[in-house]
Every structure is written in structure tokens, then in C-alpha cells.
């Protein structure tokens, strides 16, 4: 089906492309350049205040906040629009206790049994250890699962797609004044069993809540733009 499309200068032009699957017009309003840049600067300022948190307040967080964050995650692009993710949320004290116990078992192996000195050295400035009390203190635990298959069919660019969705999820939480942490004990197969997600792979475990009144974070600095961005103006 062909749809009319209005251009920015008010001239109506017919869309002449033909499709074998449903398409709809996409004509978001085009912002004036300065308005767009102002939004970009404000968005950067918002996200630049975000930090990973390990000390949470037990104060309750409304269920709708989790729903809104997953709504935001669902807007992420994904390979072939397969959206190969599932977010599983719990505030059950019993389930959080079991998740903590299983996570700490894996973390004790990581910190005390595995010979990976470079990785241990890289983590030293964060002062982390096998104690994961935050998994019980934070009012919510949310696990993002990656779906390698859907209805018996393989998904594509699964890791990339789930990673982008998790980024949107984190940004949405921060926009609501909430904090989280990307916790990834290795392996995380215990989450598949505890949460009954057979056939799905745990991707990230998110404790979610408000920062504790006495919360602290490592004094870290983000990579400067000059080290994160290169403009390629021509062939080398």
C-alpha cells in the first residue's frame, strides 16, 4: 500500500515504494538544530550523573517503575525485530535470598579459587568481594534473559540486541531516580533454574532501588570524548 507523505516544507509527496509486508509512514517532527542539541546536552547531563550502586535503600519501589523501564527496553532495536529478551522481576524475599546464596557461591569461586590475576587486579579499585548483600536489600531484582530461539526458530544478533535493550532499561531507571548495578556472576545458570526460564540464557542480574542514604561509589572518571570518538574524514 502506498501512503502520502508530507515533506518538511509542506509539499505533499506520494510514496511510490511497493512492499510485500505492512509498512506505515514514519514522519517524526524535525527539531530545529539548536533544540535538538539542547536535548542532546540535557540527555548527556542526565546520564552523566548515573553510577552503578552497591548500597541500596530497602524503601519500596512501585511495580509501575519496573514496567516503565521494560517498556523503554522494548523500544530498543533488535536483529530482524525479534526482540530476543525476557525480563523477569521479583521482590520475593525468599527468592532474593536463594538468588543471593547461589550468586555468592559462584563469587567465592571467582575471588578465591580462580587464577585470573589480571581480572582481579582490574576490579581492585572497585573494592568488590563475594558478599552480595545488595541482592537482598534492593527491593527488586530483575534478570534480563537472552532468547537464542523463539518458537523453535533461531534468533539473530541476540547478544547485541539484548545488550542494547539493557542499556535502554538502565537509562529509564536512572531517569526515574532509581539506581541499579549490572551484576553478572559467572556462570549464571542458577538463575535459569530458580526463575524457571528453561531455554533462555541469563544475561544480566539487576538489583534495583534507591541509593542508600550512606551510599558511596568509587571515585572514577569517564573516558574523555577525545578517546571515545574519532572522525574518519577520508581513507587512510
UniProtKB/TrEMBL annotation:
| Record keyword Signal present | no
MF terms (GO), sorted A to Z: oxidoreductase activity
The Nitroreductase domain extends over 48-210
Residues crossing the lipid bilayer are none
Q: Which InterPro entries match?
A: Nitroreductase, Nitroreductase-like, Nitroreductase/BluB
Q: Which domain of life is it from?
A: Bacteria
Q: Which protein, by its recorded name, is this?
A: Nitroreductase
Keywords annotated in UniProt: Flavoprotein, FMN, Oxidoreductase
**Entry keyword rRNA processing:** no
Amino acid at each position: 500500500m502506498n501512503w502520502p507523505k508530507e515533506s518538511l516544507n509542506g509539499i505533499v509527496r506520494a510514496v511510490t515504494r511497493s512492499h510485500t509486508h505492512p509498512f506505515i509512514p514514519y514522519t517524526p517532527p524535525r527539531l530545529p538544530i539548536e533544540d535538538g542539541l539542547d536535548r542532546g546536552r540535557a540527555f548527556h547531563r542526565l546520564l552523566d550523573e548515573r553510577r552503578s550502586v552497591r548500597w541500596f535503600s530497602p524503601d519500596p519501589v512501585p511495580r509501575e517503575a519496573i514496567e516503565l523501564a521494560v517498556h523503554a527496553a522494548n523500544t530498543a532495536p533488535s536483529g530482524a525485530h525479534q526482540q530476543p529478551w525476557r525480563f523477569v522481576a521479583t521482590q520475593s524475599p525468599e527468592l532474593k535470598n536463594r538468588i543471593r546464596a547461589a550468586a555468592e557461591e559462584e563469587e567465592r569461586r571467582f575471588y578465591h579459587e580462580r587464577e585470573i590475576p589480571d581480572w582481579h587486579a582490574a576490579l581492585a579499585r572497585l573494592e568488590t568481594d563475594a558478599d552480595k548483600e545488595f541482592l537482598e536489600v534492593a527491593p527488586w531484582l530483575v534478570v534480563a534473559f537472552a532468547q537464542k530461539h523463539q518458537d523453535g526458530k533461531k534468533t539473530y544478533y541476540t547478544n547485541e540486541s539484548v545488550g542494547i535493550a539493557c542499556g535502554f532499561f538502565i537509562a529509564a531507571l536512572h531517569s526515574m531516580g532509581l539506581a541499579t548495578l549490572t551484576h553478572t556472576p559467572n556462570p549464571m545458570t542458577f538463575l535459569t533454574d530458580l526463575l524457571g526460564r528453561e531455554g533462555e540464557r541469563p544475561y544480566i542480574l539487576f538489583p534495583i532501588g534507591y541509593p542508600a542514604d550512606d551510599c558511596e561509589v568509587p571515585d572514577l572518571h569517564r573516558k574523555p570524548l577525545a578517546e571515545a570518538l574519532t572522525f574518519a574524514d577520508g581513507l587512510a
